[in-house]
C-alpha cells in the first residue's frame, strides 16, 4: 500500500522537485559566483531603483552591442524587496529552476510519455553540473528554459500542430534579452515548416509579430536614439577577428564544446574524447530511430540543431566559449531520457536502482565540492575590512587587487553595500590589498577561503581626499 502510494506520479514529481531544490539551494552563498557580471548587474539594479530606467543591460563581448534590459529589471525587483542584498538572487535561481523543471516534464511528457518526462526532470534536477549553471546568475541563465520551449515549438510544428505558432514571437523577442547566440536557431523554424508542410494562418503571424515587437521594443527605441549603434556593431563583429584559433583547431574546440554540452547533465569530472562522444551520440540517435521513438523529420531537425550551433561557432570570428552551446543541454537530456526509458522499459526496479546510483553519485560531487571563491568568502573578506575600517575610524579607504589581469574580482558593490566609502587608491589613504588567489603572494595577513587580505599600514592619512 505504501509502495503504491510512493510510486504515484504526483509523489515522484514532488520528490524530484525537492531534490532539485536541495541541489540548488544547499550552501547557496558558498557556491554563488559573485564576480564581474554579478557586480555589474548589482550596480545596474541600484541605478534602476534610483530612477535611471534603462533600455539596455551590460555590454556583451561584441563592443557596442548590449544585452536586453529584462533580466536587470527582474534583479532590480528582487533588490528592492530584499533591501539591495545580492543574495536575493537565490529566489530568481529557484524560480528559473522550478520553471525549467516543470517545462521539461511537460514538454517531454506531451511529446513522448509521462515516464520520459519524469526521467528528464530527474536528470535535470539531480545533475550537479546543471545545478552549478542554475546557481550562476547571469542573463544567459535562461538559455536552458528558452531551449525547452523552442524544442516544444519545433516538435509541434513537425506534428503539424500550428496552434502554438505565436510562441515564436515570444522566443524570438527574448533572444536579445538572453543571448544573441540563440539567433541562428531560428533557422530551424522554416526547416521544420518545410518538412511538415504545416499551414500558418495570417492571424497567427500577426500575433507572433505583436509579441515579438513588444519584447524587442527597447532595442528599437535605443537604436533610433543612438543611430543604430548596436546594429552596426553587430554587423561589424561578423568580420572582426577576435578568436585566438582557427582552422582545424577551431573545429576541434567546437566539437569538444558540443560533446561537453550534450554530456553535461550526466557526466561531471569525467572527460570523454571529443570524437568518441559524437559516435556515442550518433549510436543513440540511430537506436532511437530504429525503435521508432524518433521520426525521420525529428531526427533531421535535431541533427540540424547541432549542425547550426557548430557551424556558426566554427565560421564565427569570435572566441569560442562553452556557454554558447548551452542550448544543446536540453537535447542531451532528451536523448538520455529516451534511451534510459527504452533500455529499462520493462525493468522498473533496475530503472529505480540506476537513477538512485545517479543521484548518489551527484550527492557525492556536491558533498566533496569546496568552492573557495564564492560569495560567502567574499562577504567575509568585506566584513573583515568593515571591522578594521570602523575600529580605526577611517573616513574613506581603497581596495587594491593583487590578481592576474582579467580576474573578475567582484568586490566593488559589496564594499558599497557595507557602507565603505571607497575612492581611487593613493598612498595618502588606507588601502586594503585583496589577494586573488591567496598564494599570489607569500603569507597574506589574513586568509579567508581562496582569498588573502593585507591591511593598511599605520601612517598619517589625509582624509581631506575623501
3D structure, described in words:
The protein has helices at residues 2-6, 9-25, 28-31, 36-49, 70-81, 90-111, 114-126, 128-135, 143-158, 167-178, 188-196, 202-225, 229-237, 247-263, 277-290, 296-315, 328-343, 348-368, 375-391, 412-417; strands at 398-402, 431-435, 446-448, 451-454. The protein starts with a helix and ends in a 12-residue tail after the last strand. The chain has 466 residues and is mostly helical. It has 20 helices and four strands.
Question: Which labels suit this protein?
Answer:
mainly alpha
Q: Please work out how many helical segments DSSP would assign.
A: 20
User: Between the first and last Cα atoms, what is the distance in angstroms?
Assistant: 72 Å
**Principal-axes shape call:** globular
The oligomeric status of these chains comes to single chain
State the low-pLDDT regions, or none: 1-6
Compute the number of strand runs: 4
- Note the main sheet: 4 strands, mixed
Nearest-angstrom radius of gyration?
25 Å
Mean pLDDT: 86
Fraction of residues in helix: 55-70%
Report strand order across the widest sheet: 1-2-4-3
Strand content: under 5%
Query: What structural class do the secondary elements suggest?
Result: mainly alpha
Element-by-element helix/strand order:
HHHHHHHHHHHHHHHHHHHEHEEE
Amino acid at each position: 500500500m505504501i509502495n503504491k502510494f510512493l510510486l504515484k506520479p504526483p509523489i515522484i514529481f514532488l520528490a524530484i522537485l525537492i531534490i532539485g531544490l536541495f541541489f540548488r539551494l544547499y550552501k547557496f552563498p558558498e557556491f554563488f559566483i559573485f564576480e564581474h557580471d554579478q557586480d555589474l548587474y548589482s550596480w545596474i539594479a541600484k541605478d534602476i531603483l534610483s530612477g535611471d530606467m534603462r533600455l539596455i543591460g551590460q555590454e556583451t563581448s561584441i563592443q557596442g552591442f548590449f544585452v536586453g534590459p529584462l533580466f536587470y529589471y527582474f534583479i532590480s525587483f528582487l533588490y528592492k524587496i530584499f533591501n539591495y542584498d545580492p543574495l536575493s538572487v537565490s529566489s530568481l535561481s529557484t524560480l528559473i529552476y522550478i520553471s525549467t523543471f516543470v517545462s521539461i516534464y511537460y514538454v517531454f511528457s506531451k511529446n513522448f510519455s509521462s515516464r520520459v518526462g519524469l526521467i528528464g526532470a530527474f536528470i535535470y534536477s539531480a545533475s550537479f553540473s546543471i545545478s552549478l549553471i542554475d546557481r550562476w546568475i547571469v542573463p544567459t541563465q535562461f538559455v536552458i528554459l528558452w531551449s525547452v520551449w523552442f524544442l516544444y515549438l519545433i516538435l509541434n510544428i513537425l506534428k503539424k500542430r500550428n496552434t502554438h505558432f505565436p510562441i515564436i514571437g515570444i522566443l524570438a523577442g527574448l533572444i536579445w534579452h538572453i543571448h544573441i547566440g540563440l539567433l541562428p536557431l531560428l533557422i530551424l523554424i522554416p526547416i521544420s515548416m518545410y518538412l511538415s508542410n504545416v499551414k500558418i494562418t495570417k492571424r497567427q503571424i500577426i500575433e507572433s509579430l505583436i509579441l515579438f515587437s513588444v519584447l524587442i521594443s527597447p532595442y528599437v527605441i535605443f537604436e533610433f536614439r543612438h543611430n543604430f549603434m548596436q546594429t552596426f556593431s553587430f554587423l561589424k563583429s561578423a568580420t572582426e577577428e577576435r578568436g585566438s584559433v582557427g582552422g582545424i583547431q577551431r573545429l576541434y574546440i567546437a566539437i569538444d564544446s558540443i560533446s561537453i554540452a550534450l554530456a553535461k547533465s550526466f557526466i561531471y569530472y569525467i572527460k570523454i574524447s571529443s570524437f568518441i562522444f559524437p559516435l556515442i551520440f550518433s549510436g543513440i540517435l540511430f537506436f532511437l530511430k530504429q525503435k521508432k521513438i524518433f521520426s525521420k523529420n525529428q531526427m533531421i531537425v535535431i541533427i540540424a540543431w547541432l549542425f547550426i550551433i557548430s557551424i556558426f561557432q566554427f565560421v564565427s570570428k569570435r572566441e569560442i566559449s562553452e556557454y554558447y552551446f548551452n542550448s544543446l543541454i536540453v537535447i542531451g537530456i532528451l536523448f538520455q531520457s529516451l534511451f534510459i526509458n527504452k533500455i529499462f522499459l520493462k525493468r522498473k526496479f533496475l530503472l529505480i536502482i540506476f537513477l538512485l546510483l545517479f543521484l548518489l553519485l551527484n550527492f557525492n560531487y556536491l558533498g566533496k565540492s569546496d568552492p573557495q571563491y564564492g560569495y560567502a568568502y567574499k562577504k567575509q573578506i568585506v566584513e573583515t575590512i568593515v571591522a578594521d575600517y570602523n575600529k580605526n575610524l577611517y573616513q574613506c579607504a581603497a581596495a587594491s587587487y593583487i590578481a592576474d589581469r582579467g580576474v573578475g574580482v567582484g568586490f566593488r558593490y559589496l564594499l558599497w553595500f557595507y557602507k565603505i566609502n571607497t575612492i581611487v587608491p593613493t598612498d595618502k589613504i588606507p588601502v586594503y590589498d585583496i589577494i586573488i588567489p591567496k598564494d599570489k603572494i607569500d603569507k597574506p595577513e589574513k586568509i579567508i577561503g581562496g582569498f588573502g587580505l593585507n591591511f593598511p599600514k599605520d601612517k598619517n592619512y589625509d582624509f581631506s581626499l575623501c
